[in-house]
Amino acid sequence: MTERHAPFLVPQDEIAARIAALQSGLAAAGIGLAWIEHLTDRIYFTGSAADGALLVPAAAQPVFYVRKSVGRASRESPLDVEPYPGGRKTIEAVAGMLEGGSLGMALDVTQASNYTRIAAAVERIEDISTLVRTLRATKSAWEI
User: Fold this and answer.
1) Tens of pLDDT along 77-108?
2) Do the Cβ atoms of 129 and 106 come closer than 8 Å?
3) For a Cys staple, 65 with which of 22, 29, 84, 89, CB 3.0–4.6 Å?
4) Is the pTM of this model over 0.85?
C-alpha cells in the first residue's frame, strides 16, 4: 500500500483495516484468495470505483486489476494497481495467486460469465457473500 492517493479519499489505514478483516475471515474459513468484482464491494475494499477486480490473498498483499483508468485508480486507491490482464491471463493470475486453495467469491453479485470461466480453472469456489456483507455492515469511526 502507498500514500500516493488524495487525502480526501478513503484513508490508507481504513483500506488496510478492511483488507485485514477480509484476510482474517478468509483465513478462518480456509479460503486462500478472494475475488472481489462487484462495484460496491470494490469501492469498499479499494477506495476506487474503477472497473476491474480485486484479488485478496489470505496471507499476502492484494492486487487491484483495473480495466481502464489505471492512473486514476492508482490515485484513488492505496493498493497495488495493475492493468487487468484479460481473458486467459486473468485465469492465470487467479491460479498463480491461489496456489491450489479454494477461491472465495461473493456469489450473490458475481457475474455469471466470470464465475463460469474461473470455476473451470480452479479446484473449489466458496461463497464469501456473507463475509463481505458482514464486514461492510460493521462501521468504523471514519465511516460514522
Assistant:
1) 999 999 999 888 888 888 888 876 899 999 99
2) yes
3) 84
4) yes
